[in-house]
User: What shape does this take?
Amino acid sequence: QVHLVESGGGLVQPGGSLRLSCAASGSIFSIYPMGWYRQAPGKQRELVAAITVSGGSTNYADSVKGRFTISRDNAKNTVYLQMNTLKPEDTAVYYCNKRFAPVWAWGQGTQVTVSS
Assistant: This one.
């Protein structure tokens, strides 16, 4: 089983930036497309960004397109999410996992709060 550890969240003002990281145990990480998901209070978890195995192709939810960038380093078993021009509606717990089911056990996530 792969263990996922997200980090990099915090409190940021609107318009600010954060870079999230997700470290996965085990080399099996490198053979799967990965995604960043988020869950806001009272809402379902949603996929916000995804990346192919090689990192050569990415896609984004319309709500974050042009502001978020997903990347990965397979040598470090890590996937990143650069978040710019943050908005209050980006406030959520952010998780990484496989892009497609069946997913691995969810990590603890990292809280992102956008507020003035």
